[in-house]
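re: ur question from yesterday

yeah so i grabbed the chain u mentioned. its 67 aa long if i counted rite. heres the sequnce exactly as i have it in my notes:
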Amino acid sequence: MGALKKDDYLTGFVGATARERLRDGLVFGVKEIGNGEVILMTDNPLFRSFWENGKLLFGNAVFFVGQ
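ran it thru and got these structure tokens back, copy pasting raw so excuse formatting
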């Protein structure tokens, strides 16, 4: 599970009110439901193929979680 804690260092631009809402928030996680698992991601790692490593993250989430 990946989460943003209260005193974690953050980089990049975000508005002042949005920054406060990011505190103690989930970035990605796994939830077991029935016989399967659901992968939770707060952002789309495949958005416009902007982040090339997003494809690797997505592939790992689909094929390797629970291994």
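noticed a couple things. The longest helix spans residues 53-63. also The first strand starts at residue 2 and ends at 4.
anyway ttyl
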